[in-house]
Task: inverse folding
């Protein structure tokens, strides 16, 4: 099964209509796709990966293998409520927390700032293309996410270490993403990411040549009245290879009021922050009851 590949170079020529149609199909039928010729500085991408890998090896690897997670696995205790991952979260917008994270490399903050500035432009461009494909104003999704302070942007930095008993645990359990547009800079050698498509798990290959892997989250599904769905995904682990994942989330502002575009009709509205509170306790459950709960909480009847 060949994952859709959106070549940004094709958006400015005679193949624009074909490329836009491919993007629309990817958002409607897949919920994920790859992006090439995206304009992000590839040397900067390599530097981000190098800094993250170095930080993990020096500061996080030993701590992970000495944590409760490997101990529970060795004792063959129940692992259904845990993930085989070493991760931390960096907030970028509207405020940064990078100075609060211990033992980061000296130039990590500056490098990530440069990287995120470019990545936000890519996310905004994707938001514009999606809006255009849906027949909305070009800046519709951007404006919906903006709130009073601009969109929320953050990055989950994760390593999925080598696992002695991969059959007993997930790197990350099955879930959809709570937010908007997710831009993944992932390992170029070690696989593990899988998405559900038509009832079957699709293995996402490592990202060769620094292509970006993109998926849409729950808020895009709501804004588009279900036209663009958030896809269920998971991370598998292996005995060989430690997988790198740097996932940047272009999300609504916490106070942004989320509702479907009037042109697309969807009987609900809610604050993204309220959705996140519900998501925190139901992340690894089906998303449909979450949507229904938000409808009922705002005085709407389930449909």
Result:
């Amino acid at each position: 099964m060949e994952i859709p590949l959106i070549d940004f170079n094709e958006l400015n020529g005679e193949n624009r209509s074909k490329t836009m149609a491919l993007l629309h199909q990817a958002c409607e039928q897949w919920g994920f796709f790859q992006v090439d010729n995206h304009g992000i500085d590839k040397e900067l991408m390599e530097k981000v990966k190098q800094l993250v890998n170095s930080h993990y090896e020096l500061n996080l690897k030993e701590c992970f293998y000495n944590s409760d997670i490997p101990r529970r696995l060795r004792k063959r205790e129940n692992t259904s409520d845990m993930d085989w991952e070493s991760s931390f979260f960096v907030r970028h917008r509207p405020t940064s927390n990078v100075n609060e994270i211990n033992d980061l490399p000296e130039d990590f903050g500056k490098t990530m700032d440069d990287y995120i500035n470019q990545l936000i432009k890519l996310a905004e461009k994707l938001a514009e293309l999606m809006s255009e494909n849906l027949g909305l104003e070009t800046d519709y999704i951007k404006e919906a996410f903006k709130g009073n302070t601009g969109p929320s942007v953050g990055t989950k930095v994760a390593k999925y270490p080598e696992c002695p008993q991969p059959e007993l645990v997930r790197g990350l359990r099955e879930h959809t993403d709570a937010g908007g547009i997710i831009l993944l800079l992932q390992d170029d050698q070690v696989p593990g990411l899988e998405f559900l498509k038509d009832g079957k798990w699709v293995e996402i290959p490592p990202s060769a040549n620094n292509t970006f892997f993109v998926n849409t989250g729950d808020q895009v599904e709501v804004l588009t009245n279900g036209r663009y769905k958030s896809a269920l995904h998971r991370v598998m682990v292996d005995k060989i290879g430690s997988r790198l994942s740097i996932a940047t989330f272009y999300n609504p502002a916490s106070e942004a009021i989320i509702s479907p575009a009037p042109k697309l009709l969807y009987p609900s509205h809610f604050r993204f922050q309220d959705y996140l509170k519900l998501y925190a306790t139901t992340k690894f459950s089906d998303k449909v009851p979450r949507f229904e709960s938000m409808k009922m909480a705002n005085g709407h009847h389930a449909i």
